[in-house]
Amino acid sequence: MAFGSFNEGGSTQPMAEINTTPLVDVMLVLLVIFIITAPLLNQAVPVDLPKVSASPVEDKPQVIQLALDGENRVFLNGEAIHGEVLAQRLESLASPAAELHFRADRGTRYEKVAEVMATAQRVGLVKIAFVTEAPPR
Fold first, then answer.
1. What is the CB neighbour count within 10 angstroms for residue 109?
2. Which of 41, 62, 63, 119 could cross-link to 98 by cystine, CB 3.0-4.6 Å?
3. pLDDT tens for each residue of 117-132
4. What residues contact 83, with CB distance under 8 A and at least 6 apart?
5. CB under 8 Å to 123, separation ≥6 — which residues?
6. Both ends of the chain: CA-CA distance in Å?
7. Which domains does the chain have, with CATH numbers?
8. Which pTM value belongs to this model?
């Protein structure tokens, strides 16, 4: 297997052909290896798992609905309450997993919204979500 000669009388042109036989051999060997190993990847190991009768635990957070209308009336879970007892009622409902869903009328002053949010934060409600409506299409 001579790649070229060192004769001065020989051809000085470089060889323009690439020998692809080794490349094809390697690719065929890899193809055979993948064909043999591919079915082994789909087989699962049979395991005899224990049977239990427990029901799945559903950790749904406690949702507190708080609404503020255009006349500054406060509604807690659909019930109208006075602003003075809001802190007491929120404190009785507050827990670490509780979420406050807060709705405010479009015309409500920001001062009242901030006051209600500060009251909720003071009693320990840190997860506060604003409920809005999607614009009409």
1. 13
2. 62
3. 999 999 988 899 888 8
4. 72, 74
5. 87, 90, 91, 94
6. 77
7. 63-130 (3.30.420.270)
8. 0.55
